[in-house]
TrEMBL record:
Keywords carried by this UniProt record: Glutamine amidotransferase
The keyword Repeat is annotated on this UniProt entry: no
Organism: Agromyces aurantiacus
Organism domain of life: Bacteria
Protein name: Glutamine amidotransferase
SUPFAM superfamilies in the cross-refs: Class I glutamine amidotransferase-like
TM segment ranges: none
Presence of the UniProt keyword Lipid biosynthesis in the record: no
Positions of the Glutamine amidotransferase domain: 51-193
Signal peptide range in chain numbering: none
Length: 243
């Protein structure tokens, strides 16, 4: 089997390693078949799509909607690298699944309106599939409404005509979308389980996702409901695209 790649942007080792472990567990792949590339550590290497089965993108600290002058040199580099990669990915309709930062990568590439109108605090939300989402092979077998972990400062408030809306939540109209047949992005985190999101809450406690005195409230928010369905998307992506 040709390997899959996980493009990661988390600078902190603990949540970065936890994210990789979650993708390994969710996909059922081992480290030989899911190659992690940490983009915050250095430039994206040239990716030969003919030598890969597909590409995953994890979440991260970058907000596409931030003014250019507030973006670090690393963020500018990563955004430029994704723009170049997605030119080829979209043109070839190559298998791609961006989790959370998929909105900032695929969404930005397609000209979506990305702003802070529909940010969601770290929590569990119900995601409801559209008719297109319910019929999509990646989401096959998922309930029409399922719980998912979220936590994001920005979101898509205007989806371009090139994208197909797959899922929404009460506080965020674009939770999942598809471009072409094989390029996907989610606002929620399909890789996360309860243990994983607790690791992230502690790791990013000072990153502005919640007030310093709201740590216990945030932990309580992610424990209120069971999240069991979204990770099935990762294994389905592998089953659909492994070659």
């Amino acid at each position: 089997m040709k390997p899959f790649v996980l493009l990661a942007t988390r600078a902190e080792d603990v949540p970065a390693d936890e994210e990789y472990a979650l993708f390994l567990r969710g996909t059922g792949l081992d480290e030989r078949d899911l190659i992690r590339i940490r983009l915050e550590a250095g430039p994206m290497p040239a990716l030969d799509l003919d030598a890969l089965s597909g590409i995953f993108v994890g979440g991260g600290p970058f907000n596409a909607s931030d003014p250019p002058e507030r973006k670090s040199a690393v963020q500018h580099r990563v955004e430029a690298e994704f723009a170049t990669l997605l030119d080829e990915v979209v043109a070839r309709d190559f298998p791609f699944l961006g989790a959370c930062y998929g909105v900032g990568t695929v969404g930005a590439h397609q000209g979506a309106v990305i702003d802070r109108t529909y940010g969601e605090p770290i929590s569990v939300v119900p995601v409801t599939l559209t008719d297109d989402g319910a019929a999509d092979p990646l989401l096959a077998g998922l309930p029409r409404t399922f719980n998912a972990f979220v936590g994001h400062k920005e979101a898509i408030s205007g989806l371009p005509g090139s994208a197909t809306l797959l899922g929404s939540s009460p506080g965020c109209p674009v939770q999942a979308f598809r471009v072409g047949s094989n390029v996907y992005a989610t606002q929620f985190h399909p890789e996360l389980d309860l243990e994983g999101i607790i690791v992230r809450i502690h790791a990013y406690a000072s990153h502005g996702y919640f007030a310093p005195d709201e740590l216990e409230l945030t932990l309580a928010a992610v424990r209120r409901a069971t999240v069991s369905e979204p990770s099935r998307m990762l294994r389905s992506f592998v089953e659909l695209h492994a070659r």
